[in-house]
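One-letter codes give the sequence; the integers encode the fold. A sample entry reads:
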Amino acid sequence: MKRALALAGFLTCVAVAASAQVADLRSKTELRVCADPAAVPMSVQDGSGFENRIAQLLGEKLGQPVVYTWFPQGPGFIRHTLRAGICDLVIGYAQGDEMVLNTNHYYTSAYGIVTRRDSPLAAVETLEDPALKDHPIGVVAGTPPATNLAKAGLAKDMRGWDLFVDRRTEDPVGEMLAQVKSGELAAAVIWGPLAGPLVKQDPELQFTPLLKETSGPRMFYRITMGVRLGEDAWKRQLNSLIRRHQDEIDAILRDAGVPILDDYGKGEKP
């Protein structure tokens, strides 16, 4: 019994020490953001991405300067940045990912199909549409739309790009959009926050959110901010900031061209 009590006391001390250690990692004088330096149009080292603008908004409300740790967003991103303790916040992270502690979501968006405005496929709203058959379609391998395209019998028509790349040297989204514009691809299926702002800059292209899929993986996802596991007080502070400044965050997203949906992915957010 004494051994059990001693062990319980030891584990409690370890838990308290670990909690304190996590809390001590966060800077109280700077908003330290973990970000990809070349994830156009989301985060960019020159500060032009819409996630950069949201970080700047948070920094202003906290009264702290924004300081970045740059690292390509792919395998090892969280391990080498947030978990290493050299930054304290990831501005955009999918809800439910177990590698971070998620804040409340601050927007919902969806994958969509990009076509030329003058394309015969411009009216397509679902990947089950038979009009897509026998047309080359760009998609990032391993993403939910790739599964839906395969289920729709379009595997032979798919032209794949890698999911994890160093965007300082590769630009899969830019390549797909360029090929849609040139006609080399008839369409491309891309995550809305990546495609929307870029399509907004090109009057020859259009982006249609995939809101009418009837099977396969869902096409819409809620986006949160990510902090270290155990940093509940920091999460609550960010939740408060998001709640109080949601209109300003929405304005940044809309200005950038990010498709913003309601919480259920059924239509545009009012």
About this structure: The mean pLDDT is 90. The first helix runs from residue 2 to 25. The longest strand covers residues 107-116.
